[in-house]
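The instructor's notes for this session suggest beginning with a concrete chain rather than abstract definitions. Hand out the sequence below and ask the class to guess, before any prediction is shown, which regions might be ordered.
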Amino acid sequence: MKNNAFRAGEYSVSLYSRLVTFFCLISSCLVLLGWATDNTLLKTWDMIGPSMNPMTAISILLCGTIMFLFSTGSFRWIEILSWATLLINFVNLLTPLTGFHPDQLLFTGKVSSEVPGSHMAFMTSLSVVVICSAFTGLSNARFRLAQLLSLVVFFISLTVCVAYIYGARPLSLIEGSPTMAMNTAFSLLLISSGTASMFPGQGYCIHVLGSGAGAKLARRVFPLSILFMVSLGLFRLQFESGNLRMNTGLAFAVSFIVVVFLLVIYMFSRRINIGEDILKKERKHVSDLNQKLHQKNRELQTQNEELERFAQSVSHDIRSPLGAIRNVSDKMLDPEESLSHEEKQDFLNLIKSTSESMIDRSNQMLELAKAARKQVKKTPVNSGFIVSEVLKELREESDEKTIDLQMKSLPVVMADKALLKSVFYNLINNAVKYNKGKIAKIIVSGQQKGRETIFAVRDNGIGLDIKGITQLFKAFTRLPDSNDEKGTGLGLSIVKRIVERHVGRVW
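After discussion, reveal the predicted structure:
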């Protein structure tokens, strides 16, 4: 890095500057081709005005090359070419004092025979010197200085272009010196604007080419302002020449101004409306995200509460059976204890039943975790077939009780087959488990109500106390009336979790 120079690729060159670069390279080559083939159209673009001097074409070609090098980050070559171009044009500035025309080194005979003379204009050389100074400023990250220098060239070239539009001979700073050609002025106009906007996010350009509302306003107003002022100048020239009557011209000018301002108002009104629509969509998106966040927070709070109850339940429930197993094992291992065969058998049965109870609790804990995390894959499921499978499994497991189950109008539903089976298994298993009779009578029915399918499970079991109904579906919670029955307090919690994951409700 040199002084304040920036690294290659640190700032990106604007698309407009890249387009200007290719225009300058192509147009200058066409002018040189015009001099080589003596084609007036290529030299002048309008067949009327003075030709672009070949040395001017070389200078514009070098300027285009320098602008291209900014895209590659070759700052050493940028400075070399800038100083070389500046030196060539500085020598041409001294022509009135030295009498030496460096542009005669190219196409000497053709340049001398041009009428009017096609020597490089003083204003052209001055503009190239200034623009090369701007290039040097850009290569050293002096963005504001470079943009101000480019603005000077923009003013000079714009003045010449407007003069051609108005049909006047462009002014020269020195009397009798050559004038700037129309295609030269247009090329310098593009080069100066491309140099000023080379890096949109730097210097003064950020207020015009940035993403802010003021920059967007400026980009729309500047071209309209230039067009508007040039048009007013044309109207004035028409009035002075007598081609238009004052009243008619004034009415036309006023109408033109009104139309321009109406278009400007429409454009900004449209932009504001579009901005408001985008803002509404963003607000709705933020609102939706907030609702999802609140929902996730509620779910997290519920999971934390269940986790706390889980820790308490595991601590309480596992400690008791493990303590019982330890006490029984101590008695059986104590050599001073003289146990009969029947007592040893009872102790072993106690260890077995306690272990099975702990295994059941572990399996239901895993089932609860599966119900909470398993991905729901909905397919058409015959609920009657699912209930039949559950009944078959429970009859194989239950040797003590007879299960009398009736199915009424069980429909086909969209659900996850494995999870729906878990729902019916826990409901019917509870009906069998909490039943003191020898025969567990169970009725499973279903009905369509609007867009909902409602299932009901009825049985002749021990029943429920309405006072404790709010605790029924909470994990690791058992109702007081069921304390003398075998159970883990997880079955209905699993049912609730699965139904809610199917966007349903349970009561």
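Then share the key points. DSSP finds 16 helices and five strands in the chain. The longest strand covers residues 439-449.
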